[in-house]
Design goal:
It is globular, with a radius of gyration of 25 Å. The chain has 16 helices and 16 strands.
């Protein structure tokens, strides 16, 4: 039940009994029991809710709980009346693309059910005003969006769809902000390796002020890190409503979301996309970010993907660790190829750091489970390395590696294709066992 529905007490009801319904943390969020009871309207036996308890007052009382739960006080009953109306043979297709700041934009058009049921390659192209998204001048602002992938729409339901697009000049040239097109070219150079990706997207939930993380006191700090990771409880898990809603939305949309968890910093969460193959991994991560923004829009909070939204060594940053494998690394003896891949990634460390997201220098300091961005390292089961080789991969002699350097705001098309391109030069057996043993010993 919404907080605004369960906090109304009949006159004379025992306060202690009422407190037990929603816990001490909820009372603390609104200033304690005395403040709660002083601001709580009561029911009249004859007239129902007293006239002094207006809808505005109810909303004001329920808002503090939103700051720790991520649940909005919005009543969707009116909107639902319209959303349930029949559409006949018409489908709403939401076209989604990326703007100059790597944020998803979208607009909707009507298609026939027959057209919408066909392959995405047959969907019509569309245009938008690029001067309003930082992608074109005002005197020549038309940008072409080309459908690339389609997903069931978890917000409208039915046969309605979300269409992921990339962006082009009228002459067919990819926009400079279109990182998908060059990524496709890189993947198409080698169709035999079949790269698999698992993308670990971390994000931090903020209140609508954009300053206060969910669950944090306004203008202050919560208790130190430790009890929040994978935690349960109103005093340590902030934003589960967002995580759960986003999880279901991703499943409905057909994304390969494989899990989610609360992270180390309070108000911070993670979800994982994959295993997905090649360009599909970046496509799905891009759509998952759009879904996250839409869920947060409904629930009245902001999803921030900056790599270090709260400065200081005592608070973890946010990354997007990339788990990567190929046919060669997954085959028997693939560990030798993984070693060689790590060496190749080390040779181009600076190039990768430059491509792994803005503001990453505040995160990759060597503290809070990160390696310094100034050095490159790899090792077994070491979360303080640039590249971690999972212990089960080392034991099995094959599997995958985890690149822990990418920031949470990294462009997934740039990062996944760059890892694929760099590691394609690796040859199994190129790393001496003695050298790898030394790396393992130093990082153990």
């Amino acid at each position: 039940a919404r907080f605004s529905e369960i906090h109304l007490l009949p006159r004379g009801q025992d306060k202690d009994a009422a407190y037990g319904k929603f816990g001490i943390a909820a009372l603390a969020a609104i200033g304690g029991a005395d403040a709660f009871m002083a601001g709580t309207p009561v029911l009249s036996a004859n007239k129902g809710l007293r006239s002094s308890a207006t809808r505005h007052q109810l909303r004001m009382v329920s808002e503090p709980l939103q700051r720790v739960s991520g649940k909005s006080s919005m009543d969707t009953a009116v909107l639902d009346r319209y959303m349930k109306l029949e559409q006949g043979d018409k489908v709403q297709a939401e076209y989604v693309w990326i703007d100059a700041n790597m944020r998803a934009r979208s607009k909707c058009r009507t298609l026939t059910a027959k057209k919408a049921g066909g392959p995405v390659e047959e969907y019509p192209k569309w245009t938008y005003d690029g001067s309003s998204t930082g992608q074109a001048p005002g005197d020549d602002s038309e940008v072409i969006i080309v459908p690339r992938a389609k997903y069931p729409d978890p917000f409208r339901g039915g046969k309605n769809v979300l269409i992921l697009c990339d962006t082009y000049e009228p002459d067919g040239t990819p926009l400079p902000t279109n990182s998908r097109a060059p990524a496709v070219e890189k993947f198409e150079k080698d169709t035999k390796s079949i790269p698999w990706y698992g993308l670990e997207q971390e994000y931090t939930l903020f209140n609508l002020d954009g300053i206060t993380p969910l669950g944090w006191p306004v203008g202050g700090y919560p208790g130190p890190q430790g009890p929040y990771y994978c935690a349960a409880g109103a005093d340590r898990s902030f934003g589960r409503a967002v995580s759960d809603a986003h999880y279901k939305a991703c499943i409905y949309a057909g994304l390969e979301i494989s899990g989610t968890n609360a992270e180390v910093m309070p108000g911070q969460w993670e979800y994982q996309i994959g295993p997905s193959i090649g360009i599909a991994a970046a496509d799905e991560l891009t759509m998952s970010r759009y879904l996250l923004d839409r869920v947060c829009e409904d629930l009245g909070v902001i999803a921030n993907i900056e790599p270090k939204p709260i400065k200081g060594p005592e608070w973890n940053g946010a990354g997007m660790h990339i788990n990567f494998s190929t046919e060669g690394t997954r085959a028997e003896g693939g560990l030798e190829l993984i070693k060689a891949m790590c060496e190749e990634l080390g040779k181009k460390h600076d190039e990768h750091i430059a491509a792994y997201g803005e503001g990453n220098e505040d995160r990759l300091t060597g503290a809070c489970e990160t390696a310094s961005m100034d050095t490159f390292s790899y090792g077994i089961a070491d979360r303080g390395c640039s590249i971690r080789i999972p212990r089960d991969t080392a034991a099995a002699g094959c599997g995958y590696l985890e690149d822990r350097r990418p920031a949470s705001n990294v462009d997934p098309y740039v990062a996944t294709s760059l890892i694929f391109e760099t590691t394609s030069a690796a040859k199994a057996g190129a790393v001496e066992d003695s050298k790898f043993a030394k790396v393992k010993a130093e990082k153990k």
